[in-house]
Amino acid sequence: MERNVFVGLGGNVGDSIAHVRDAIREIGKIATTRVMTCSGLYRTTPVGELDQGDFINAVAQLETALTPDALMTRLLALESRHGRVRAEKNGPRTLDLDLLLYGDRILQLAHATVPHPRMHERAFVLLPLAEIAPDCSIPGQGAVAALLSALPEQGVIRIDVA
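RESULT FIELD:
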């Protein structure tokens, strides 16, 4: 079982808070996979395609016996069940699930690169990751805390929801 698996969750179409919360529950139902902890929710201004609504983001830490490919396949299926349509890069989406880290492995999968290639530049990933794993390091990049402190303000705000 790999214990240091981190998944980024986000969305900005429909009830994004519900999509992210539902996805966390559904990830916990994947065979041989367990959600160890999850960050709070963060409201984030869009990156790239700016003509769209704010995102809701979070990061979950998993324990899984699945291979990285098998886990990514299940995450993509979960996105589809939530109505994810890949019409444009960085465009609006109901649910986005990114395999951020799989232990300290560096991998090129069919549908993902691990560590996620831009996670070290994005506060909407680093802030929730630092919340649940403050001593985490990104292979090839360094400590999450140091990476986060080097970033400019990116419009990421932790939100309190009941």
